[in-house]
UniProtKB/TrEMBL annotation:
The keyword Protein transport does not apply. Residues 3-198 form the Mannitol dehydrogenase N-terminal domain. This is Mannitol-1-phosphate 5-dehydrogenase. The lineage of its organism: Bacteria, Bacillati, Bacillota, Negativicutes, Selenomonadales. GO terms for cellular component: cytosol. Belongs to the mannitol dehydrogenase family. The gene is mtlD. GO terms for biological process: mannitol catabolic process. It comes from Selenomonas ruminantium. NAD(+) binds at residues 4-15. Gene3D superfamilies: N-(1-d-carboxylethyl)-l-norvaline Dehydrogenase, domain 2, NAD(P)-binding Rossmann-like Domain. It comes from the Bacteria.
Length: 381
């Protein structure tokens, strides 16, 4: 049986990437520092996934084990030497913390195993594998760098599956939605790219990253910020509000026009992708708190993120992104006291004024028509 290592034994690791790897004929070794979780996986060597939606289903996943990387780094090194693929789902901020152990394992591997190996960071970020590669290189001994660069690939990936907040009686049970998408950059792979059910190797990953970012993430954030202004608590309830849904559809029309023009997506297929996304948000089993989806407005209002980036690109194409300007305006009113970024943005508005806050957080040039649109929409809420 082929061998896979997956960093992160949490819900996304077990409920998404780990399950696809097992389904594709791999024995999966989860790597985590949660001793109780590691021990339970090793005790059972299996767990269940519950698909929630119109057609609920239980999937039983076997051929799994786990390593506590904090307690047994030498066991992890041995596993890396024997692995056929390595993946992660730990969160962007944690990548730097796994790099020392990963680097140590790869340095040993290239001495004893010259088979190509691909390391794929399956994180909700752009260029996750490239970021991880940088952290690994910082931790590699000088004598191993050339061999690691030759044999080890770090293909960037785009991933998409909703794994809702949950508390189950069985600590290994994971509830997930039916939909799942995993794309990876074939041009960054070493050797023959591993064929994994549910993983699509693509040459232009940017297109799929932006399709997901400007459809799923943009739509989710738009609904959340509009719902917060109305005092609606969860996404499912927001999707019952006609005005919010109508505005979300206008946002999707704008981002869809951009994506079709920029990357040549088939308009009908993209329309189906948007409808699928809307239906995902209507799944009552996946409903998330509005304040959790809207959290981090400082990041979400960034020039390269889900709201400002498509609006800026549309303006450059000669289009007027009115719906996007509306939700950007709503984001500047997100004042949830449980979110540090929200409080920072609100403090900046109070201290320096709305004009300077928009300029600071969005980096939209103040002479731009988009800047005037956003300022008018924000003031109008």
């Amino acid at each position: 049986m082929k061998k896979a290592i997956h960093f992160g034994a949490g819900n996304i690791g077990r409920g998404f990437i780990g399950e696809l790897l097992v389904r594709s004929g791999y024995e999966v070794t989860f790597v985590d520092v949660n001793a109780e979780l590691v021990d339970l996986i090793n005790e059972r060597r299996a767990y269940d996934i519950k698909i929630v939606g119109d057609k609920p289903e239980i999937i039983h996943v076997e051929h799994v084990r786990a390593i506590n990387s904090a307690a047994h780094p030498e066991e992890l090194t041995k596993a890396i030497c024997e692995a056929d693929i390595i993946t992660t789902a730990i969160g962007p901020n944690i990548l730097k913390f796994i790099a020392p152990n990963l680097a140590a394992g790869l340095a040993e591997r290239v001495k004893v195993n010259q088979q190509p190996l691909n390391v794929i960071a399956c994180e909700n970020m752009v260029g996750g594998s490239t970021v991880l590669k940088g952290f690994v290189e910082e931790n590699l001994p000088e004598e191993a760098k050339e061999a690691v660069a030759h044999y080890i690939g770090f293909p960037d990936a785009a991933v998409d599956r909703i794994v809702p907040l949950q508390k189950n009686d069985d600590p290994l049970l994971v509830q997930v939605e039916p939909y799942a998408e995993w794309d990876a950059n074939v041009t960054q792979a070493k050797g023959e790219p591993p064929q994994i059910e549910g993983l699509t190797w693509v040459e232009n990953l940017e297109a799929y990253i932006e399709r997901k970012l400007f459809t799923v993430n943009t739509g989710h954030a738009s609904i959340a910020y509009l719902a917060y202004r109305k005092g609606i608590k969860d996404i499912y309830s927001a999707m019952q509000d006609k005005n919010i849904v109508d505005m979300a559809r206008k946002v999707w029309q704008e981002t869809g026009d951009l994506l079709v023009r920029k990357f040549g997506f088939d308009p009908k297929k993209h329309e189906e992708y948007v409808k699928t996304t809307e239906n995902r948000f209507r799944n009552p089993h996946l409903s998330d708190e509005v304040t959790r989806v809207a959290r981090g407005p400082k990041r979400k209002l960034g020039a390269k993120d889900r709201l400002v980036s498509p609006a800026t690109q549309l303006l450059a194409q000669g289009q007027k992104p009115s719906a996007l300007a509306t939700v950007i305006g709503a984001a500047f009113h997100f004042d949830y006291d449980g979110d540090k970024e929200a409080q920072e943005v609100q403090g900046a508005i109070q201290e320096k004024g709305l004009h300077k806050a928009i300029l600071n957080y969005t980096q939209i040039p103040e002479e731009s028509e988009l800047f005037r649109m956003v300022e008018n929409k924000t003031a109008g809420f």
